[in-house]
Amino acid sequence: MMLHYNPERLRFARERRGLTKKALADAADLDSKTITVYESDSKDSAPTLSSLEKLALALGYPISFFQKDDAPTLAADAVSFRAATKLSKKKENAAIRAGELAKELNQWLENQFSLPANATPAFEPEEYGNPATAAAMLRQQWLLGERSITNMVHLLEAKGVRVLSLAENCLDVDAFSFWEDSTPYILLNTMKSPERSRFDAAHELGHLVMHKFTQNKGPEAEQQANQFASEFLMPEASVKSILRPWPTLPQLIQQKKNWKVSLAALVRRSYDLGFSTDWHYRQLSIQLAKQGFRTQEPEGIRERETSLLLEKVFNTLRTRGICQKDVLEQLGWPL
């Protein structure tokens, strides 16, 4: 039996799950050559209902997903992955497909609601000169002053950034961001500590603000985004009003709470602003590593920042009698 079927959706689901054609064929009890045929654009490439049921079961996607039109596309060169050298092509493809799902969800939401308009600027390189200035300019534009940012996710959402989580069991993908026309997106890895996730969000904000019109890949772009994040989360004037020269690790553990950052981030910031010599910075870094504070955050934030926008959206949908299952059916997504 032949049925309405979109081969691109099969390729999409396979890459989202990080499977090769052979791995999918084995999981679905089919021949790998058959998968190649099913993913081709040939008029005769559609699987039988029986085969599609096997594929849907192996991939964990409902059959309706494979019958929808193409998902929105996201070009690989529009995305910058921080640990690109560690990232396999399979993981990169899976993350890019997550970005495309983010765009598809946003399209659905914008058809239902008036979402916050974008208020996140994209600076030309000659406008800011260096990352710290770009962060200060953005703080000024957003009327943040020197105060600590209470919640990065809520701030970004209020400024029109679509923030979603990467449902990846993959530490190699920290986070990534991209522009879709005038809409900025940030996807965050939920396996990181709340402090690290805040820094990742600020880092990706740096990419959005500084790199829309220039190179967003490579060590230099990553360093610039880190410098932006440090200044944005820990403004120089704010840090200088609290820190003292030659800080100890216990002092920094208490002081990092002012800005809700990781101990490692504040150790680095204190060095960059001249509170530590090279020798003192190395000693702090050694102590930090020995005590396991690079993987376990001391006196860390208890709760991860979550989306206020999505919470409001789904609360409103419930009042309309629309549950999560209804949304999934319209999107053709798995739970």
Task: Explain the overall architecture.
- There is one protein chain.
- The protein is mainly alpha-helical and 335 residues long.
- β2 and β3 form a beta hairpin.
- The chain has a 3-stranded mixed β-sheet with strand order 1-3-2, sandwiched between helices.
- The model has no long low-confidence stretch (mean pLDDT 92).
Highlighted features:
335 residues; mainly alpha; 3-stranded mixed β-sheet; 16 helices; 50% helix; 5% strand; elongated
Helix content: 40-55%
Main beta sheet, described?
A: 3 strands, mixed
What is the element string, with H for helices and E for strands?
A: HHHHHHHHEEEHHHHHHHH
Radius of gyration: 23 Å
Shape: elongated
Q: How many individual β-strands? A: 3
Task: Please summarize what this structure is.
The chain is built from 16 helices and 3 strands. It is mostly helical and 335 residues long.
Strands, helices and their partners?
Elements: H1 7-16, H2 21-28, H3 32-38, H4 49-59, H5 89-112, H6 125-128, H7 131-141, H8 152-158, E1 162-166, E2 175-180, E3 183-189, H9 194-210, H10 219-233, H11 236-240, H12 249-255, H13 263-272, H14 278-290, H15 308-319, H16 324-331
Parallel strand pairs: 1-3
Antiparallel strand pairs: 2-3
Helix pairs in contact: 1-5, 2-3, 2-4, 7-10, 9-10, 13-14
